[in-house]
Write a structure and sequence with these properties.
CATH architecture of the largest domain: 3-Layer(aba) Sandwich
Helix content: 25-40%
CATH class of the largest domain: Alpha Beta
Distance between the termini: 63 Å
Number of strands: 18
CATH topology of the largest domain: Rossmann fold
InterPro entries: AAA+_ATPase, ATPase_AAA_core, Bact_Antivir_Def_Nuclease, P-loop_NTPase, Rad50/SbcC_AAA
GO molecular function: ATP binding; ATP hydrolysis activity
Shape: globular
Number of domains: 4
Strand order of the largest sheet: 11-15-16-7-17-18
Protein name: AAA+ ATPase domain-containing protein
Number of helices: 23
Length: 771
């Protein structure tokens, strides 16, 4: 890390553009809400600054690139592949939480402030972007109205009263000049923290990655060699590149090391920050080279001692007394299922977070025909990720019924002895659940190996109604719905009226994203028994209000509300989720079978995006039969299961496979979704029309030629009528290609069908090129 004077580059002109000005005035309106509305409303999504040529915010990224001379602000690596824009203070819900009532507001007012924006490489992006600790547990006061107005009216993007009245723990490369107070660079490239600020900054931005250590070691070697050349050459002057690194990567770390080396060589406990002067003083000494070599030796010895002392790793040092947050494991990156129920071998990979919402958790929607294994995947994942105590509490779990038996899929092999679910966490260790057939004690059929999952897990079956009362807390409460179809959820209203004021407002903020599907609300209110949805009648905010009891909303909405409140209840329970701070930052995994159950089409279109907005840090994995639920899912966030009638590796005549790398469906019509790989319907026409189509395709498969059958001829003419093919020869070639496609498509697998489509497209294109 190096100190950079921010004012040496002027703020980009984007801050004077209409988009930026509108956002600043929206900020004034947001903080100008009445107290109740502000406490129940999240701040709006900030701009995700893009470094693409067609982006209106390109100028911001370019200015940051120039300010830091093409390097990452935190690790100093060269940004050869472009940059991302990082908000030093998070745009909302900063943790650790100091005051629950205002936690969601920190630091919304700096989301688009020039002083808060930094260039960052992908590898330095914090795993916890909300983490921003301050000393003495005291954050800056919330902004006054006049500060917000002044910020909105100026065109340079600078927050008027900066720096804030607080003491951040993380080191700021544009504010903390004396970086040597917080960091120490060793000869082999290891960056050490001298104090809490240095150690937490290294941890937060992962500044001791192996590639960084190697690069810093090379810079250290280069720098020490240049110093030695200077010390041994009587006529040499101190090389500019040695003292003024400019664009070269990792020279901020080198200057920290050089300062310590010169201090040790000169016997100074506090050497001057003027390194050129100190270097000249050393050169004037007769034993300058010996002193410098001794200084390198001292630093190497300190590095060796660091490794001796840190048989505990740096992270545990931080836990031991420096106040680092507790870390949880990441979401699983991949789940492999082997021989579980009807699934011989299935791999489910979670996608990366959406690029336009890097702080959001990834999610996945699983599609497939009945009996393809959608619910089975959810069961296997839930069993593998829940703790053994929760698994024991579920009634009726029989491992003998969970291990694949080939005879149920048409095979003649003996029943298999075990099933396995392997959970991968990227670079960390894996977790494995092994399920064996058990003769006497069914609980003995489950064995867990590897790391323990730290994320709260929730699992819900297709039937998600709730009681009029509240269920008592049991450890399997949040997963039993998936395994026990008759299980009813708790009445959410009982829990909502019992919450503290701050927690109720926090839940209301999350619910607003889901209520917006139904039309939204102004605020939620409650008395000792009920919760009320309060909304304005008409467009006048000061006009009359409606006050609707929560119990009177639609049944579909109630089922979503019951499930969502059950998830929030679990996330907020310190016994289940000890690291909980806010619903904005809470992490977890929610498995939902048939997400579309009980929902109106308006809800189906928005349910996935609504849930993901309500709990942005939670990963939702759901199954569905409905194309409307694909709305809200991006590229790589959909998985399709297909039953294949061909012999598998274990000789099964029928098995399930996955279709991945599906196209982005954002702009597709419902008919396109239904007839594409997502749902694999050959037609959305009536039963009679499909029957007539099937009869024609049967004839084609038997080799009937169009010229010999009027029905076949009419059908092919209809298929090719819309194409611009006036030439009879071209018309015949197109019809022939279509005929062969229709004849073959009913007997091939979905993966082979893709190849068949490509072949047909090429043949039609070749015919059209002759027009």
């Amino acid at each position: 890390m190096r100190f950079v004077e921010r004012d040496r580059v002027a703020p980009p002109k984007w801050f004077a553009m209409e988009e930026a000005r509108n956002n600043r005035f929206m900020l004034v309106d947001y903080f100008g809400m009445d107290e109740k509305s502000l406490s129940q409303t999240r701040s709006f999504e900030p701009v995700e600054f893009s470094y693409t040529k067609d982006s209106s915010q390109l100028e911001v990224a370019e200015a940051l690139h120039s300010l830091f001379e093409g390097c990452c602000a935190f690790c100093e690596s060269e940004l050869s592949a472009g940059l991302s824009v990082h908000r030093f203070r998070p745009s909302s819900s900063a943790t650790p939480v100091m005051d629950t009532s205002s936690a969601h507001l920190y630091y919304a007012w700096l989301a688009e402030a020039w002083q808060n924006l930094y260039p960052i490489c992908e590898n330095c992006r914090p795993k916890d972007p909300f983490h921003f600790p301050v000393t003495s547990n005291r954050r800056a006061p919330l902004p006054q109205h006049e500060d917000l107005v002044a910020f909105a009216e100026r065109d340079d993007g600078r927050w008027p009263s900066f720096p804030l009245d607080e003491n951040p723990v993380l080191v700021d490369p544009c504010y903390d000049r004396k970086l040597w107070r917080h960091f120490r660079l060793f000869p082999h490239g290891l960056l050490d923290g001298r104090d809490r600020r240095g150690r937490e900054t290294i941890e937060h931005f992962d500044l001791n990655r192996a590639d960084l250590q190697a690069a810093r070691e090379a810079t250290f070697e280069w720098g020490t060699e240049r110093v030695k050349e200077y010390l041994t050459n009587a006529n040499a002057t101190a090389p500019t590149a040695l003292l003024d690194p400019g664009r070269l990567p990792h020279f901020g770390g080198w200057r920290i090391a050089l300062r310590e080396l010169l201090g040790n060589a000169l016997g100074r406990a506090r050497p001057s920050d003027n390194l050129g002067r100190e270097l000249n003083r050393l050169k004037d000494l007769p034993d300058a080279m010996d002193r410098f070599n001794d200084a390198i030796g001292q630093l190497s010895a300190a590095e060796h001692q660091w490794y001796v002392d840190d048989a505990i790793n740096p992270e545990e040092q931080l836990r031991a007394g420096m106040g680092i947050r507790d870390r949880t494991y990441d979401l699983p990156s991949k789940v492999e299922i082997h021989n579980y129920k009807s699934l011989e071998k299935i791999e489910v990979s979670l996608p990366d977070p959406p690029k336009d919402k890097p702080r959001a958790a990834p999610s996945l929607l699983i599609l497939g025909e009945n009996a393809a294994g959608k619910s089975t995947i959810l069961e296997a994942m839930a069993l593998a990720l829940m703790d053994p105590g929760t698994r024991r509490a579920l009634r009726g779990l029989d491992p003998n019924k969970m291990v694949l038996d080939p005879k149920y899929l048409g095979g003649d092999a003996d029943p298999l002895e075990l099933a396995q679910v392997l959970v991968s966490y990227g670079d960390t260790d894996d977790k494995t659940l092994t399920i064996r057939r058990a003769q006497d004690n069914t609980l003995a059929g489950f064995r867990d190996d590897g790391i323990k999952n730290a994320l709260p897990v929730f699992a819900y079956g297709a039937f998600r109604q709730y009681l009029t009362s509240e269920r008592r807390h049991v450890r399997h409460r949040h997963v039993r719905s998936l395994f026990e179809p008759d299980e009813l959820l708790s009445n959410p209203e009982k829990w909502l009226v019992r919450l503290s004021n701050d927690d109720f407002e926090m839940v209301a903020r999350a619910l607003r994203d889901v209520f917006s599907i139904e039309g939204g609300f102004d605020v939620l209110e409650r008395d000792e028994k009920e919760v009320y949805i309060v909304g304005a009648i008409g467009s006048q905010p000061d006009g009359p209000k409606t006050r609707t009891p929560l119990s009177l909303v639609s049944s579909g909405f109630r089922s979503v509300l019951a499930m969502l409140c059950d998830v929030m209840h679990g996330l907020m329970n310190k016994k289940i989720n000890p690291s909980f701070q806010t619903l904005d930052t809470a992490r977890g995994l929610v498995l939902i079978d048939e997400i579309e159950a009980h929902l109106h089409p308006r809800w189906k279109v928005s349910i996935m995006s609504g849930l993901r907005s309500a709990l942005p840090g939670v990963c939702f994995i759901a199954t569905s039969h409905d194309p409307l639920c694909l709305r809200g899912m991006g590229k790589d966030e959909v998985l399709v299961l297909e039953r294949v009638r061909e012999v598998s590796e274990q000789g099964l005549p029928v098995h399930t496979q996955t279709l991945v790398n599906l196209p982005d469906n954002k702009d597709w019509t419902i008919q396109q979704l239904l007839t594409a790989d997502f749902f694999q319907l050959q037609s959305t026409e009536s039963g009679e029309a499909r029957k007539a189509q099937a009869e024609v395709e049967d004839k084609l498969a038997r080799g009937v030629r169009p010229e010999d059958d009027q029905a076949v001829r009419d059908y092919l003419s209809e298929m090719s009528a819309a194409l611009p093919i006036g030439d009879t020869e071209v018309h015949r070639l197109v019809q022939q290609a279509i005929a062969e496609f229709l004849a073959r498509r009913r007997t091939v697998t979905q993966n082979r069908l893709r190849d068949l489509r490509d072949e047909t497209k090429k043949r039609i294109l070749a015919a059209l090129e002759g027009v």
